[in-house]
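Please check what follows.
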Amino acid sequence: MINKSISSRVKSFKSISAYAQYLLMLSSIILASCSGGDAGSPGTNNPSARPLNLGADNAVDVTTLSLVETEALAEAIYIVMEEIDINPPTVGIDVVNCTDGGTETTEFRDNDNSMSLTSGDNIIGSDAACQEGSAASDGEIRINLLASTNPSANRYVGEFIFDNTVFSFDGIDVALDGGANFEVEFFVGIATFLSVSTLEGGITISVGASGSPSSTTETITIRNLEREINASGDLLLGMNVEFESETLGGRFTLATGSSLSSLAGEAPSGGSIILSGDDNSAIRITGNSGVTNPQTNIAIDEDGNGSFEIVLSSPPTWVDIMGSGFLVGLP
């Protein structure tokens, strides 16, 4: 969708595809078990607006859905901006035919006539029934560059906006609306910095089987997210995110208690993630040190007394709950 690169566009939304498949599976399981109750029925008394009770029965699902969802959006913004940094678009409008039908249009509005990416410029990618094998896309992505953008220093600051953007993968439709402020900087070697915070209203993600009139909607509001990898490949991650989930039937928050940290190529060994729900119920996620892709440690405070009495005996790995592993620096 951006910069005439079909492969980059498909790559950038690979994690959203994985998220969509997980969401559909989870939604079908929850709805099948509800037997008509409104606690998990999308559209009934707006269940996603009610605080969600967190406990041992939903700890893995809540953790996985929230982390995969956050990662999918952050990774999409990062990869698109990385492609723009490597292959800057040319001024004007460029239309290409997609391999299996439809078109892909990229427009670079050089509003200050500088012939380069600067503050105030716009990049607009729009697809019209663009089909690439089993992947299809429609709608628009807009990037509005703001002050402090400096391509010569590989630094970009701006707004990344989804406007009725629909991606289809293997019979699943994912529709995104809303936007985020971002800052991304590519240093020498592998060192990078990414900051994301959603615009007012957050980003809505609707997922459904292709051709089906029904879908489930998630709203994510990223108050702040900062991911930094230094020249040695070591990671530091901090975030504060709010969710309203039709799939899970309530709202909850996710925040790093202290920033997650890890050495190059390893899963997080320092810091923690805290998910908070109704009546002070909470889930705490920590890691182990010295092992690539270790198990997480997940502890639960079901009664909200501040003590995490329940510890999962067979917790998932970081890769299991993170999707691609982008947020925590795993390949």
Observations:
- Confidence is low (pLDDT under 50) at residues 1-13, 33-44.
- The chain is about 20% helix and 40% strand.
